[in-house]
Design a protein that fits this description.
The chain is of the alpha/beta class. It has helices spanning about 50-60, 65-80, 80-95, 110-120, and strands spanning about 5, 20, 45, 100-105. The protein has one domain (about 5-120). The longest helix is centred in the middle third of the chain and has 15 residues, at about 65-80.
């Protein structure tokens, strides 16, 4: 059993399991009833997305210094007890079930999901072998 960190809207892989959208907003122009069938997500869980202010920092980050500021702020948001518990829960679930978490960003290296992957890994999440 494993957890994948994916780009929402991408084709699903075999045995991917439930897709969790860790995004602030649902996809634009897509009827709610079609989120899963269009490979966006099965369940929306904005709790693990950056706050609007932090998301703006990440979207506007053009330099390594700006990206580091975004990463620091997002990590701070994820350090709240509620978010730490959620990350711990997902890490444990990855030992027992297949599922994925994701965002819309094309480049994971410049997306909150890269930081989320690190936080989940530090909490013991199990990812697919490469």
């Amino acid at each position: 059993m494993v957890m994948r960190v994916i780009r929402l809207g991408s084709p699903r892989v075999e045995d991917e399991g439930t897709r969790i959208g860790t995004v602030r907003r649902p996809p634009r122009g897509v009827p709610k009833a079609e989120f899963a069938s269009q490979n966006w997500y099965d369940v929306w869980f904005p709790n693990l997305s950056p706050s609007p202010e932090t998301m703006k920092l990440g979207q506007e980050a053009d330099t390594p210094t700006q990206w580091a500021a975004f990463t620091k702020k997002y990590r701070t948001e994820m350090a709240t007890p509620e978010n730490r518990h959620t990350i711990a829960l997902l890490a444990v679930l990855s030992q027992r079930a297949n599922f994925s978490v994701g965002c819309y960003c094309e480049n994971e290296a410049r997306c909150h999901r890269s930081v989320l992957r690190e936080l989940l890994g530090a909490a013991g999440a199990r990812f697919p072998s490469i």
